[in-house]
Each structure stands twice: as C-alpha cells, then as structure tokens.
Amino acid sequence: MAMGSGKFVENMALHIVESETGAEMAAGVFVFVFMLAIILSAYDSYKRASIGKEPILLIFLFLLLFTLSIRESGIGDLDFLCEFFTLIVIDILLIKFLVSWYVLLFVTRQPGSNHLGKPVLGLLPMASFIIIFHTLNNWASFDVMDSPFYIAFYTVLGFAWIYIGLMLMFFFFDLSWRDDAINLNNSAAMIAVAGGFIALTMIYAGANIGSGPGWWCVVYASGLGVAAWISFSKLVNLFTDVFERITVERDFACGIRMCFYWLAGGLLLGRACAGDWT
User: Fold this and answer.
1) 232 confidence band (pLDDT: 50, 70, 90)
2) CA dist list (Å): 278 to 76, 107, 221, 275
3) How many CA atoms lie within 13 A of 278 on its CB side?
C-alpha cells in the first residue's frame, strides 16, 4: 500500500514538474492536492467510523489505476487492463454506495429520523443517473456515444465519483447526509446535501463532454472542478460560517441558499470542465 501511494505521488509530481505552461502546472498542482485530499478524507472518515476499511482500499486502488492510465495511455493492452480493473473497482464502490444509501434511508428504522428527507434523498441517485446518461448519449466523445459498454462504464464511474465527493463533503464541511440529514432530522442539512449531490453530478457530467484519450481525462477534469467547488465553498464558509449555521443552528433558509449556491457552482464548473482534451 505504501509503495502504491508513493508511486502515485511520484508520478503526479513528475507531471507537475514537466508541465510546459503555467496553466498546466497550476492544474497539475490542483489535481495533486485534490487527490491527497481524497486520501485524507477516506482516512478521516474511517477514524470517525463513517466508512469501513474496504472503501479506503478501493479508493487507493482507484488512484493507482488513475496514475497507471495516465502513464500508459496509448498502449493498447495496458489501456485495456487499466480499464478492466478500474471497472471492477468502481463497480464495487457503486454497490457499496447504493446499498448503504438506500438501506439507511428505507430499511434501517431510526427514531426521530428525517421522514421528509428520505424521499428527497432517495430520488437523488435517480436524478444523477438521468443527467449522466443523457450527457453521455448526446455530448460525450463519439466512441463513447457509439458504445453501450462505455456508456455503462462512465455511468458507473460517475456514481463512484459522487461517493468520493460525498466523503470529501464530510471531510471539508463536516456535513453528513447520514448523520445530519437523516439521523439528526436536520432539514437544513438535507436540502444542502441534495444541492451538493446534484452539483457533484453536474461537474462530473460536464467533464464527459468532448473527446479525450481515456477515462482518466474525465477524472482529471472533474477533479479540477470539484477542487474548485470545494475551495469556493470553503471561502464562503470563512466569511459566513454557513456550515455551522446549517449543522448546529439548523437554519433552513441558510440550507436553501447553500443548496442553490452549490447548484449554480456545479453548473458553471461543469461547463468549465467540458471540452476536448488537448
């Protein structure tokens, strides 16, 4: 595990150093920091008993495959192997995400849980599926639109990416759909989480628009978008303490404003992530 993560850091650092333009270097630094944040988020969530050991191992595998895909892009057999093992990892992440999501919402009965939030949160994965599927069928690369396999692959990758994004939301904003929105019956957190969920979906969907050499381009572009989304949200919180008002004071109006702020930011950043890989 230490060797795999060390190789990942080494490859990302080399990419940053070898960048030819200032913009490319800034993008490399942004993605590098974002990937480190994913690792910290997984470890922090594990310490708080929010997730088990398996998602952490899967995320490490995902990041390792991401690095290998960048390094070996264009080599047919290795491209296929990276895609094959990536599909296995993201399938497992998808299953763990959907099972934990719907079991907590509709199977586990907890006194005082947010009954209004359950149908709202229950519809979010379906709304995300519609957004991602429509984008892949109409605006993705030509080889994706012509292939049912790649449409399925990028759809599953989208849900794995949203799962990681929700962990980052908990790590950076201390906002949990499980604890705040459901267990603590916090309607302000529920509406904010809903906005964040769809915002993550729009950023990922936007990153699929255009042509590129591989799936890692989508992860790279959406990584930039999510890193910017998190950075701007932290800046807003610095001046307003918005997340304390949502999680502690349960300010529903504040939750609505943050929901629409995230939706607007997701739409803008999704458009920024779109385009051909050059």
Assistant:
1) very high
2) 20, 47, 12, 9
3) 8
